[in-house]
Amino acid sequence: xxxxxxxxxxxxxxxxxxxxxxxxxxxxxxxxxxxxxxxxxxxxxxxxxxxxxxxxxxxxxxxxxxxxxxxxxxxxxxxxxxxxxxxxxxxxxxxxxxxxxxxxxxxxxxxxxxxxxxxxxxxxxxxxxxxxxxxxxxxxxxxxxxxxxxxxxxxxxxxxxxxxxxxxxxxxxxxxxxxxxxxxxxxxxxxxxxxxxxxxxx
Length: 202
Description:
The protein is of the alpha/beta class. 28% of the residues lie in helices and 10% in strands. The protein has helices at residues 49-59, 76-85, 96-102, 110-118, 145-155, 175-178, 182-185, and strands at residues 2-6, 13-17, 23-27, 42-43, 94-95, 131-132.
């Protein structure tokens, strides 16, 4: 197993890759169920060049869609749920119930869907932060509610609070500033706003 760490506005990210160099996880400090470096793992930044480059571009608001080869181990059900997460566009949100419908699960399985989303090993890259409650409220996030707010704010799903630092400064609005605006700013469940056009630099 290969690993490296990367600085980010959310704190240092731990990235892992398998022996083929395929990205297998992205974790944040204190993440529930997050990975930690194990004995025998090899620290090597080589397999992560594309991931690091794209994460930097994402946090600079220059990238709306990751184009990385990833591999995550899970049950067939979790794999379906994780694939459904990939279909939620940048700058939008959807609900646990809608994800359940996308994978053909009954309404009674929403809790199981939530568990699968919480077990997503590829934070940020696979956007579990875009899933909200049926009433439009934020719910749990393995990486911490403050980080969920920061990611949604970066993507434009929450308004940038006046006076807060902007993304190109590589600092996201503080969660205590963004949280009060959440209830009035998130789209109604099932409504997917048009994603903002990411800026490009020559």
